[in-house]
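Researcher: Next entry in the queue.
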Amino acid sequence: MLTKRIIPCLDIKDGKTVKGINFENLRDAGDPVELAQIYAQEGADELVFLDITATVEKRKTLAELVKKIARVINIPFTVGGGISSIEDAEILLQNGADKVSINSSAVKNPDLIAKLAKSFGSQFVTVAIDTRCVDNQHIVHTHGGRVATDILTISWAKQVENLGAGEILLTSMDHDGVKNGFANDLNALISTQAKIPLIASGGAGNMAHFYDCFTKGSADGALAASIFHFKEIEIMQLKKYLHQKNIAMRI
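Model: Structure for this entry, 251 residues:
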């Protein structure tokens, strides 16, 4: 049985870890290198680094910061933000990333997914999908959630799989930072439509929310930020809780 993954997320702005609610009202959450090292030591299965303003500010991901983080961790490391070419991905790979996450650039140029998969393998390519419910439909958003598209989330999830993505990182903007639980209905629906692994993001507030994410939401991984950054939940404590409830965990 494949183990489920617990994945802390470092949202980076101006070189610092930040966290907000519904993608707004960001506050400082600590030094990203220190946090990364702590999470690796505490038993996180993977780490995600998202340079959340790279696309809006029309710049590339902070490669030097990526390198510093990669030096202090020994777990798979996914990096996203401002990646729009094979060359951008190569720079991050050279600086320690194991996978790249693309979002706005994938929507703008879906062929980039196929090119990255061909160059590096599907396992290297994560497509992040930021989604919000608009008029009872789940709609893809880009540019750090600032720009609504006319793309339906479920159809986009199937498309990115067909283009060669290795996994999907789905963030429900409606649930982000609210701590009322993950978007399990949507997660379960996408898990049945797309066969590649799904990492669920947005809504973690307690340990039971992770259990629901893996059972009701059928997610392969659960990503969270503030509850880890502000020590509301310890990673190993969470994994032992899930293990006791018969969720396969790496402990």
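Model: The chain has one domain: 5-244.
Researcher: Noted, moving on.
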